[in-house]
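input
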Amino acid sequence: MNKDSIKKVVLAYSGGLDTSIIIPWLKENYNNCEVIAVSGNVGQNDELEGLEEKALKTGASKLYVLDLTDEYVEDYIMPCLKAGAVYEEYLLGTSHARPCIAKGLVDIALKEGADAIVHGCTGKGNDQVRFELAIKHFAPNMPVIAPWREWNIKSREEEIDYAEAHKIPLRINRETNYSKDKNLWHLSHEGLDLEDPGNEPQYEKPGFLEMGVSPLQAPDEPCYVTIDFEQGVPVAVDGVKMSAKEIVLKLNELGGANGIGLLDIVENRLVGIKCRGVYETPGGAILYKAHSVLESVCLDKLTLHEKQKLAITFGELVYNGQWFTPLREALSAFVDKTQETVTGKVKLKLYKGNMINAGVWSPYSLYSEEIATFGESDYNQADAAGFINLYGLPIKVQALVMGK
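output
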């Protein structure tokens, strides 16, 4: 990349440690180029306070704040929920936010005639891939600047040193310097004491959890919640119709208050590094559980089992930044077909971090109490003998052959 050709850039801006120091760094290293900051609002609302003032003070010419919350929930979260997509138990909170934000970045970059797009992702992480694959999809010839792959800064401590030297205000200090990512679906925590997998997360420490409480601090009485679905999409909570975004936010409150949705894993990053992360996904965990319960009665065995296999592939595609690919689109088409009968209501009991089935109802339920009952029914149990003889015939033949 010819640095002399870079006159104007669009920066994916959060106001956090990385992007706060990137603005002056770009000025110093890219010929005092114009920096247009773009923040994609995917639900990190409290982090947006004072963001424009901070961006302008540190050298940005302007700040765009894009409200992507509805698009994020409807076009990214819901397809993953319907697919049952996870990655090693992780509910993809950062993964499916990145392509949504990147799409908005490209829109502004093309509108402003930018010479490059800049992001603050490290060279160790997954997000660099997620951002850049999405950028390639929408603007295949757009150059990308990733300062972490260029500068001499080697750690978050050195980033803080740089910020202090340039008088850049930070919302963190060296003792609370977790690397966090927040949106309306989740909050992730990495770094500091969590870098040692032998350390228990400080769930009970004030300020560690932001979306809820530790199960130990949850109420002693259970909380019941009922969720209605139509074709795999949640449409109501406790009988009250809501948008998908409103449902996520409502369930975040209920789940967070009852210690739901905490996950502590060592995951396999795309770049080959194992990384320990702690995630808060209270509403998402409830939705995934309820959706799974509803599918258990609405989907036939072959469809359910094949869908569960493909959910692994779906989750890997999203985690690995391959949202805008023909395979992901094809899998979504398959998933949408499976969801045509996933309509009904699920009741869950929330209690100190646990989600307990408390009832499921659907007009498309394939469960027949009349057939499954231990009482009298029209099922002819004698039919099982012929079925077993045919089903077990290969085993019998093999045994006879080996016996000779």
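quick obs: Residues 117 and 144 are 5 Å apart (CA to CA).
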